[in-house]
């Protein structure tokens, strides 16, 4: 049998991290060799997460974990503030980053792409790993060719740090590539409450809702003459992201450079 792909998970005690640990443990081609989270050091992953992770212990030190466990792949589900340093370290040690954490700039992605190529390794940055969300983005880009007036409402749990979501930003990027540059709405519109019209990317408005009860949801709403079209995706739990995470851990072994968007590995 081929050697397993060795994976460490950073942010392993978080909502996405613990789901990822379980998905890796279930997959026959992947091996969990390390788990990192902020406050945990030398504590059994099995004990903390209630799974059978063998002898793998938590560490609170990304660099030490990368050096000692020599993984092929580092999966990051942490925070916008710490994810960047983790990607830099992974590339420095020749470990392929698979990043779900949102909140990076196009310039940073371009620099990591260059660094991965220089190191001869692949990387994945995926604002959303759920196949339904990728299809939503694809259909939205297609719809924008015919109905170019568009706004997004994204809805997430109230513990999310970044707004708008990485998925909303990626959707608007894909739409702006698909439609002609244009203005939207009334040129003289005025907000009597600041922020009422949401954020703006290339003339398109995005509205972020944060409430308990939500997981991850997005509506892309198009308006045309006498009609509207709404494309909606709902992640009703975090298992929805796992096939994409597992696929990325495998595909990232096969190329060089940083891929931004799982659609580039799927479609
Ligand atoms: N790409 C995708 O499909 C998805 C992406 N996300 C993104 O993933 C990120 C994480 O989301 P959640 O799991 O919901 O957050 P969370 O808050 O539940 O988990 C983050 C974890 O990172 C740990 N952490 C923070 N600083 C750390 C450090 N310096 N070193 C090691 N660990 C550290 C925290 O202790 C926590 O356990 C967010 O940016 C979110 O937007 C979430 C869901 C899906
Ligand atoms: O924080 C989350 O939960 C999610 N974050 C990602 C994003 O910002 O788009 C992906 C998904 O929406 C869940």
TrEMBL record:
<feature type="binding site">
    <location>
        <begin position="100"/>
        <end position="102"/>
    </location>
    <ligand>
        <name>NAD(+)</name>
    </ligand>
</feature>
<feature type="active site" description="Proton donor/acceptor">
    <location>
        <position position="156"/>
    </location>
</feature>
<keyword id="KW-0963">Cytoplasm</keyword>
<feature type="binding site">
    <location>
        <begin position="126"/>
        <end position="129"/>
    </location>
    <ligand>
        <name>NAD(+)</name>
    </ligand>
</feature>
<feature type="domain" description="Dihydrodipicolinate reductase N-terminal">
    <location>
        <begin position="5"/>
        <end position="129"/>
    </location>
</feature>
<comment type="similarity">
    <text>Belongs to the DapB family.</text>
</comment>
<protein>
    <recommendedName>
        <fullName>4-hydroxy-tetrahydrodipicolinate reductase</fullName>
        <ecNumber>1.17.1.8</ecNumber>
    </recommendedName>
</protein>
<dbReference type="GO" id="GO:0051287">
    <property type="term" value="F:NAD binding"/>
</dbReference>
<feature type="binding site">
    <location>
        <begin position="166"/>
        <end position="167"/>
    </location>
    <ligand>
        <name>(S)-2,3,4,5-tetrahydrodipicolinate</name>
    </ligand>
</feature>
<dbReference type="GO" id="GO:0009089">
    <property type="term" value="P:lysine biosynthetic process via diaminopimelate"/>
</dbReference>
<dbReference type="GO" id="GO:0050661">
    <property type="term" value="F:NADP binding"/>
</dbReference>
<dbReference type="InterPro" id="IPR000846">
    <property type="entry name" value="DapB_N"/>
</dbReference>
<keyword id="KW-0028">Amino-acid biosynthesis</keyword>
<dbReference type="GO" id="GO:0019877">
    <property type="term" value="P:diaminopimelate biosynthetic process"/>
</dbReference>
<keyword id="KW-0457">Lysine biosynthesis</keyword>
<feature type="binding site">
    <location>
        <position position="37"/>
    </location>
    <ligand>
        <name>NAD(+)</name>
    </ligand>
</feature>
<dbReference type="GO" id="GO:0008839">
    <property type="term" value="F:4-hydroxy-tetrahydrodipicolinate reductase"/>
</dbReference>
<feature type="binding site">
    <location>
        <position position="157"/>
    </location>
    <ligand>
        <name>(S)-2,3,4,5-tetrahydrodipicolinate</name>
    </ligand>
</feature>
<dbReference type="InterPro" id="IPR022663">
    <property type="entry name" value="DapB_C"/>
</dbReference>
<dbReference type="Pfam" id="PF05173">
    <property type="entry name" value="DapB_C"/>
</dbReference>
<dbReference type="GO" id="GO:0016726">
    <property type="term" value="F:oxidoreductase activity, acting on CH or CH2 groups, NAD or NADP as acceptor"/>
</dbReference>
<dbReference type="InterPro" id="IPR036291">
    <property type="entry name" value="NAD(P)-bd_dom_sf"/>
</dbReference>
<comment type="subunit">
    <text>Homotetramer.</text>
</comment>
<dbReference type="InterPro" id="IPR022664">
    <property type="entry name" value="DapB_N_CS"/>
</dbReference>
<keyword id="KW-0220">Diaminopimelate biosynthesis</keyword>
<comment type="function">
    <text>Catalyzes the conversion of 4-hydroxy-tetrahydrodipicolinate (HTPA) to tetrahydrodipicolinate.</text>
</comment>
<keyword id="KW-0520">NAD</keyword>
<feature type="binding site">
    <location>
        <begin position="11"/>
        <end position="16"/>
    </location>
    <ligand>
        <name>NAD(+)</name>
    </ligand>
</feature>
<feature type="active site" description="Proton donor">
    <location>
        <position position="160"/>
    </location>
</feature>
<dbReference type="GO" id="GO:0005829">
    <property type="term" value="C:cytosol"/>
</dbReference>
<dbReference type="Pfam" id="PF01113">
    <property type="entry name" value="DapB_N"/>
</dbReference>
<keyword id="KW-0521">NADP</keyword>
<comment type="pathway">
    <text>Amino-acid biosynthesis; L-lysine biosynthesis via DAP pathway; (S)-tetrahydrodipicolinate from L-aspartate: step 4/4.</text>
</comment>
<keyword id="KW-0560">Oxidoreductase</keyword>
<feature type="binding site">
    <location>
        <position position="38"/>
    </location>
    <ligand>
        <name>NADP(+)</name>
    </ligand>
</feature>
<feature type="domain" description="Dihydrodipicolinate reductase C-terminal">
    <location>
        <begin position="132"/>
        <end position="266"/>
    </location>
</feature>
<dbReference type="InterPro" id="IPR023940">
    <property type="entry name" value="DHDPR_bac"/>
</dbReference>
């Amino acid at each position: 049998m081929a050697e397993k792909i060795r994976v460490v998970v950073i942010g392993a005690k978080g909502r996405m991290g613990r789901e990822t640990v379980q998905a890796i443990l279930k997959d026959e081609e992947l091996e969990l060799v390390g788990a990192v989270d902020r406050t945990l050091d030398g504590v059994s992953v099995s004990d903390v997460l209630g799974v059978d992770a063998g002898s793998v212990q938590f560490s609170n030190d990304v660099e030490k974990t990368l050096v000692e466990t020599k993984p092929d792949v580092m999966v990051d589900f942490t925070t916008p503030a710490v994810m960047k340093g983790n990607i830099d370290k992974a590339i420095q040690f020749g470990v392929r980053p698979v990043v779900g954490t949102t909140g990076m700039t196009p310039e940073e992605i371009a620099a990591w792409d260059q660094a991965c190529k220089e190191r001869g390794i692949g990387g994945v940055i995926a604002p959303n790993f759920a196949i339904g969300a990728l299809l939503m983005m694809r259909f939205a880009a297609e719809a924008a060719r015919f109905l170019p007036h568009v706004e997004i409402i994204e809805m997430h749990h109230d513990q999310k740090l970044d707004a708008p979501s990485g998925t909303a930003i990626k959707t608007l990027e894909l739409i702006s590539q698909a439609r002609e540059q244009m203005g939207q709405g009334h040129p003289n519109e005025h907000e009597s409450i600041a922020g009422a019209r949401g954020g703006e990317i290339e003339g398109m408005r995005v509205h972020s809702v944060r409430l308990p009860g939500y997981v991850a949801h997005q509506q892309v709403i198009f308006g045309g003459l006498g009609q509207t079209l709404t494309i909606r995706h709902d992640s009703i739990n975090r298992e929805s992201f796992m096939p994409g995470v597992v696929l990325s851990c495998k595909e990232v072994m096969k190329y060089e450079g940083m891929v931004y968007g799982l659609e580039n590995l799927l479609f």
